Amino acid sequence: MSTDDSTLHDPVRDTARQDTARHDTVAPDDATPRTPGVSAHRAGVRVGTIVWGLIVAFVGLGVVLVTAGYTIDVQLAAIVLLIAGGVGLIVGPLFQGVRRSRSEQ
Questions:
Q1: Which of 33, 36, 96, 104 lies at 20 to 30 Å from 18 by C-alpha?
Q2: DSSP readout, 10-49?
Q3: Mean local confidence (pLDDT), 54-59
């Protein structure tokens, strides 16, 4: 015969659950302090999103080329994609910072 554990109550666990439930509530949006003139949303597209999107697009292009009959050196292609992605992740924010500083002047 099996026992149903859902009817058994442990007073220590029940108290702990009640304490955490009390603190898990989220304040309504009206209660959050806001700084005038500062937007909560980020302007523009993130560089990482563009870089990873390009990597996925190039991998897809490679798959299409392989299915079309072309031969691709996978190791070399992976090295080139990693180098290009790394350079993009380093250089992209630098260009964004320069562009942002010019627009603030």
A1: 33
A2: -HHHHHHHHHHHHH-----GGGS---TT--SSPPS--HHH
A3: 95
Q: Is 71 left (phi over 0), alpha (psi -120 to 50) or beta?
A: beta
End-to-end CA distance of the chain: 78
Output b/e per residue, 34-71; b: 16+ Cβ within 10 A: eeeeeeeeeeeeebeeebeeeeeeeeeebeeeeeeeee
CB neighbourhood size of 93 (10 A)? 14
Contacts of 59 (CB under 8 A, 6+ apart): 81
Enumerate residues 6+ apart whose C-beta is below 8 A from 35: none
Please tell me the distance from the alpha carbon of residue 67 to that of residue 62, in angstroms, as a whole number. Answer: 9
Report which of 43, 44, 42, 78 is spatially closest to residue 58, judged by C-alpha positions. 78
pLDDT exceeds 80 at position 28: no
